[in-house]
């Protein structure tokens, strides 16, 4: 009979981080890549990773029990659909996410109590600088961070089903990062033209990605501060997981800047996790606390997003649930009600 006692529940919760760190170890040691390349025994994996055979066997025994790998030390290890996503050459690789979460993010979570007490990020407490400053001074970590964020974008395809882009001509991606969302939309709708705005140091990354996916002629990129100005005249504006990084005042400033650039017929698509008021979804609640710990950010309730939009002259038209307990909020200029 399964042990469902409160004490067992406490132990399961406390040791959950050990499972995450075991996954981190496998990603850091590139074990999925090595198994894919033919190193399927504990001996060959130990040699390839510079580890002890005993350590590899114990790590793999746990990860096999967790369903990350299949097989055994005696019969050889095999990838599962889970560990396949941790290969570096997988087209939807989550390897960098596993490394980032088990390293920088793990260290910041060690300062969760100071973050809760002070209301400021645990990352600052752990590293002596904010996340943005740390990434600016560590280019390799910044690149891994961007790849990790891209790996979490499995819901982008859902946006194509949730919103009809057929009547649009120009899509403007605000703070669009590497341009993964914009590329997804433009690839699905060959008649669309895309514009991406982000800080100047991000633009080369976006250009490389968009050109690689779309080729020339389908997009343009703009380096600048989206809080001050965004390209005008778009039919659809995108704001994916940006509001979560800022306080209410800055969010209203950003939304107001976007509203000033929008024609009255345009729509704004906001991708965020919505905090449930009844506790029905766990991931938005986890992410809300994670954002406090990492970057002084926050997720919001649906009422919170509606208020921000209203203060910027926008109204919430519809809400669509998409993958990973994420939501697509569709907003329009408020005067459309007139």
Task: Explain how this protein is built.
The strands form two sheets. Strands 5-4-3-6-7-9-8 form a seven-stranded mixed sheet, sandwiched between helices. It has a two-stranded antiparallel ribbon with strand order 1-2. The mean pLDDT is 93. The longest helix has 14 residues. A hairpin with a 3-residue loop joins strand 1 and strand 2. Helix 2 packs across helix 5. By secondary structure, the chain is of the alpha/beta class. The relative contact order is 0.08. The protein folds into three domains: 79 residues, Winged helix-like DNA-binding domain superfamily/Winged helix DNA-binding domain (Arc Repressor Mutant, subunit A), CATH 1.10.10; 48 residues, no CATH class; 165 residues, Vaccinia Virus protein VP39 (Rossmann fold), CATH 3.40.50.150. It contains 18 helices and nine strands.
